[in-house]
Write a structure and sequence with these properties.
It is a single chain. The protein is mainly alpha-helical and 761 residues long. Among the domains are: 17-105, no CATH class; 141-300; 540-689, Alpha Horseshoe (Leucine-rich Repeat Variant). The protein has a three-stranded antiparallel sheet with strand order 1-2-3.
């Protein structure tokens, strides 16, 4: 007893001394809060007051200011903060006031990167029924908790809840892992395999423990070793099927209640309680799988076990937190085509449409990102339009939180020509025009201008764009900032016939003034393309070419290697447009542009677009007398056209045929050559057969001793009169009728047409 008294006296005599020293004050990087740094110095004093043991620790306190807004009185709030927080010395009142003023004026929205990180990772599951117990777990009592896992279900639930308390602290995970030698992990795994069907709380606790480990990649090997992922997928599949049975039973109960008047409400409340517990289990199990899916090999195993089908089924739930997790998982899986195809089979778009719009900000954000991934598929874009997503997405353009991602989805939809016109029946275009004109930067956001470029390819959309001063404002901005993408949008607007094209007459001079070597090439290309679209009869192109000295520029760019192919092509198209005017065509012919075009044709003969546009220039020029004579008599353009008459490209053949028909009408010599080539082509198979026919020696003397001469000699096949027909059959080989006789006839599609009819072969 005396010894005990001495010990008590000694303990009482020990004094504990604690000192707190204030430090710096700063603002929270993302929240409306102040961070107060301070230092705690703890000293244990001995019997005589001498320090025996001391320790210093740096700490911080976060003061959250939820009520801070634009109308808050900063002076009063600063005074209140200093009074209530003893860590802040009154002398720092002015500093606190300045920090609060900064917080008040700081933009609330996070940066793009922070937003992405925030939305891409769901929140950890919160505490739930079964986890919350009165006891406080101690890492030193782990052996006791493990023993509880060998008892009855209530004790197992209690033991797992205590272990979970420890596992939720990341600092304990390493020490918990050391208990693996004591069969800690194997005990949990055994209990989960054997008893998960008996208790949802027990299954949830144990899976949550493994989830805590799964949050760190270095523990994934441990989880894989015990095959927890496969077990979780079996549990999820079972719970989803169980939920379907619950719903069927509830539906039958409801029908019976209507008929018999039984109490349906009691059954429904019981069902709701079961669903809440089940969704807690599903949430931790899916989150664990999402963490494990960092490894693509593990993700592939999940896919082979139908993880996509399970997730899409879970979209029918109403729990926001569970839905955020499910949609996040689907978004991660959707980047692979095989997973995307599985989603198509499960009609995922129809299930996602109910979430747009949605009151829950995070769920709406992650759903839009999933839709963006899916919108790369043409069939799914079609489905999005069918289920009515277009007006819903358009409505989100007015919300800054979703504007960017919604615009990206709409951009993908606008890529399909079938859906471009549908935007005219929403308020999309007025919103986009407002965004364009309110943009303060020199360069418009890429997503916005790309979307506008697509929409401008539709005539009805263009009418809405040009309403009021729409075109005037676009031209003013494009010319001010020399924006090539905005000019591309204007170029798309200019391609549509009708009233909108006539609006460009006022801007022809402004556009022509941009055609020079001083401007950026991309911008010049779009200006040239816009001018080339202006096929307006009343436009005096000769005046434009002379006033802005465009002919030397156009001719110079036609030289091979003088400019990039994109610019040269636009120059050729521009020449084709202005050649519709008689005086312009003559001006261009005098400048020597036609030989330059032929030289370019030789250099670009493998490029179908170049060939087609150059031939179109010839087509326009043969309409005019001055240029027609130059093309026919002074160049080899008709010969090139004849060579291209049978090109593989259908458009090239059409333009060639039309051009050659006009040439044949005005020049007899070329008409004969053209007829001859058409005859050759139309009857090519027959001619090849005749030319290639070689008879064996035995066949040559089969009908007598006289040698049969071959059909074809060195001369032209059309110069052989014995191959023509008369009313009695073949014309005599003596050539009694000269080939000149057939000048009275002409070939049409390979057939001879004239005054007399010939019997068919």
């Amino acid at each position: 007893m005396a010894t005990l008294r001495v010990l008590i006296w000694y303990v009482i005599s020990i004094l504990y001394y604690r000192k707190v020293k204030g430090g710096n004050i700063d603002v929270h990087p993302s929240e409306k809060a102040l961070i107060v740094q301070y230092e705690v110095e703890a000293t244990i004093l001995g019997e005589m007051g001498d320090p025996m043991l001391g320790e210093r620790k740096e700490c911080q306190k976060i003061i959250r200011l939820k009520s801070l807004n634009a109308n808050t009185d900063i002076t009063s709030l600063a005074r209140k903060v200093v009074e209530e927080c003893k860590l802040i010395h009154p002398s720092k009142l002015n500093e606190v006031e300045q920090l609060l003023y900064y917080l008040q004026n700081r933009r609330d929205s996070l940066s793009g990167k922070e937003k992405k990180e925030k939305s891409s990772k769901p929140k950890d599951p919160p505490p739930f029924e079964g986890m919350e117990i009165d006891e406080v777990a101690n890492i030193n009592d782990m052996d006791e908790y493990i023993e509880l896992l060998y008892e009855d279900i209530p004790d197992k639930v209690r033991g797992s809840a205590l272990i979970l308390q420890l596992a939720r602290n990341p600092d304990n995970l390493e020490e918990l892992l050391l208990n693996e030698k004591n069969q800690y992990c194997s005990s949990k795994t055994r209990v989960l395999r054997e008893d998960w069907k008996q208790s949802v709380e027990l299954a949830t606790n144990i899976i949550y423990i493994f989830f805590c480990f799964s949050s760190f990649s270095q523990f994934h090997g441990l989880i894989t070793h015990y095959k927890i992922g496969a077990l979780c997928m079996n549990i999820i599949d079972h719970e989803l099927k169980r939920h379907e049975l619950w719903q069927e039973e509830l539906s039958k109960k409801k029908k019976a209640d209507i008929l018999l008047g039984k109490d349906y409400e009691k059954t429904f409340k019981k069902y709701q309680g079961l669903v809440v517990k089940q969704e807690q289990l599903l949430r931790v199990a899916l989150y664990l799988l999402l963490n494990l899916a960092e490894d693509t090999r593990t993700e592939l195993k999940m896919r082979n076990k139908n993880i996509v089908h399970m997730l899409v089924k879970a979209l029918d739930r109403d729990n926001f937190e569970l839905l955020i997790l499910v949609v996040s998982f689907l978004k991660k899986l959707s980047i692979f085509m095989e997973n995307k195809n599985d989603m198509v089979e499960m009609d995922i778009v129809e299930k996602l449409v109910k979430m747009i719009p949605c009151e829950h900000e995070d769920l709406l954000n992650i759903t839009l990102r999933l839709l963006l991934n899916l919108s790369f598929d043409t069939g799914l874009r079609n489905k999005m339009v069918q289920v009515g997503l277009l007006p819903k997405l358009t409505a989100l353009l007015g919300n800054d939180n979703y504007k960017q991602i919604a615009m990206c989805v709409l951009y993908h939809i606008s890529m399909d020509d079938r859906f471009k016109s549908m935007f005219a029946y929403t308020d999309c275009i007025p919103q986009l025009m407002k965004m364009l004109f309110e943009c303060s930067d020199e360069r418009i956001d890429l997503e916005l201008i790309s979307f506008c470029i697509n929409l401008a390819a539709n005539k009805r959309n263009v009418q809405l764009i040009c309403e009021g001063n729409g075109l005037k404002m676009l031209m003013k901005r494009a010319l001010k900032f020399k924006d090539p993408l905005l000019m591309k949008m204007i170029r798309n607007i200019s391609q549509h016939d009708g009233p909108t094209k006539n609006l460009f007459i006022d801007y022809v001079g402004d556009l022509a003034a941009q055609i020079s070597n001083d401007e950026e090439e991309e911008f010049v290309i779009e200006c040239l393309g816009t001018l080339a679209n202006l096929t307006i009869p009343d436009l005096d192109w000769e005046l434009v070419l002379k006033e802005y000295k465009l002919v030397p520029y156009l001719k110079d760019k036609l030289k091979p290697g003088a400019a990039e192919d994109d610019l040269v092509l636009e120059v050729v198209i521009m020449i084709g447009t202005v050649s519709m005017d008689d005086s312009c065509a003559a001006l261009l012919a005098k400048s020597g542009i036609i030989p330059a075009l032929i030289e370019l044709l030789n250099a670009q003969q493998e490029d179908d677009e170049f060939v087609c546009q150059i031939i179109y220039v010839f087509y326009q020029m043969v309409f005019h007398q001055a240029t027609r004579d130059v093309i026919i008599k002074e160049t080899q353009a008709p010969a090139y056209l004849i060579d291209l008459m049978h090109d593989k490209n259908n458009e090239i053949r059409k333009v060639c045929d039309n051009t050659l028909d006009i040439i044949a009408e005005y020049d007899e010599e070329w008409a004969k050559k053209i007829q001859s080539e058409k005859f050759r082509w139309h009857n090519s198979q027959w001619l090849e057969m005749v030319e290639s026919r070689q008879m064996d020696e035995s066949e040559q003397y089969l009908y007598g001793d006289d040698r049969i001469e071959p059909y074809i000699h060195e001369g032209d096949i059309l110069e052989r009169p014995d191959l023509f027909y008369n009313s009695d059959g073949l014309i005599a080989s003596e050539g009694a009728i000269s080939p000149d006789f057939f000048n009275d006839y002409h070939l049409q599609n390979g057939d001879v047409v004239g005054q007399h009819s010939f019997p068919g072969r």
